[in-house]
Specification:
Elements: H1 5-15, H2 19-22, H3 24-38, E1 44-50, E2 65-72, H4 75-84, E3 92-95, E4 108-114, H5 123-133, E5 134-145, H6 151-160, H7 173-182, E6 186-199, H8 202-212, H9 228-238, E7 248-260
Parallel strand pairs: 1-2, 1-4, 2-3, 4-5
Antiparallel strand pairs: 5-7, 6-7
Length: about 260
């Protein structure tokens, strides 16, 4: 997968004003991540949130760090996050790419990232850069969706039109585990989790994904318009997943990972 960073910045900037209204899974993921932080409640001097989005989760880092830096590639997200930070919890705002972190070595005691690193081309590079900017003993806590995320939607599209990708690809769990195995980080926790969100219709799901900014943003995506016939075929395929309660599931398979730089 090659990620179009300009498309990401534009997509999430557009999504920013309404993002929190549909970020159901993101809130559940955030709660799981905060629980990891709470296992070591002592506050550190400085923390960085990579892909801070609207700042809803970043603000909740306040008990865990005295100085918080919020970073996002989307200017629109940063603007909304600044509006949301009414208590002025965030010390610094940075608009930058997660694959080009603009910080000197050993700048932070905690690096935090929730559902952002899947938009990076080279996760190993991000991990190496985070390792460099952490102080000895510092922690890297992040969450990332993996390959079976939105499997129902992906399968429905594949049966309707096998030539093109309509859903973003996510890294395999084995790929992430392989990166951890060769990383200098110590692995403190690796939680594999599955959350399922239910919808009354496929259109409700796709509208929500668009509102989240989480639609196709890979640079090799197909730019041709999808015909109505293909779209209806996809929607018909998705109906096979409808449960006994009359609802359609959308699966989010993800990992919550806590790493530590050796002291």
């Amino acid at each position: 997968m090659t990620v179009d960073k300009k498309a990401i910045a534009l997509s999430f900037s557009r999504a920013a004003p309404r993002y929190d209204s549909v970020a159901h899974v993101q809130r559940q993921v955030g709660e799981a991540m905060l629980a990891v932080l709470a296992s070591e409640p002592a506050a550190v001097a400085s923390a960085l949130d990579i892909g801070c989005g609207t700042g809803a989760l970043t603000i909740q880092l306040a008990p865990y760090a005295e100085h918080i830096t919020a970073l996002d590639i989307a200017p629109g997200m940063l603007a909304v996050a600044q509006q949301n930070d009414q208590q002025r919890v965030i010390s610094e705002w940075v608009c930058a790419d997660a694959e080009r972190l603009p910080f000197p070595a050993q700048s932070f005691d905690l690096v935090f990232s929730s559902f952002a690193l899947q938009w990076c081309d080279d996760l190993s590079r991000v991990m190496a850069d985070v390792y460099a900017i952490l102080r000895p003993g510092g922690r890297f806590v992040f969450s990332i969706p993996v390959e079976n995320t939105l499997r129902e939607l992906k399968l429905s599209w594949r049966k309707a039109e096998s030539r093109y990708h309509h859903v973003n690809d996510f890294p395999a769990l084995a790929e992430i585990q392989g990166l951890l195995d060769v990383s200098p980080f110590l692995t403190l926790q690796l939680q594999e989790r599955l959350d399922v969100v239910y919808y009354e219709s496929v259109r409700e799901l796709t509208r929500e994904l668009k509102t989240l900014g989480a639609h196709q943003v890979t640079s090799n995506r197909t730019h041709s318009l999808t015909g109505k016939k293909t779209l209806f075929k996809m929607m018909s395929n998705y109906e096979h997943f409808r449960n006994h309660q009359g609802l359609l599931p959308a699966s989010w398979h993800y990992c919550v990972i806590a790493l530590q730089k050796p002291r």
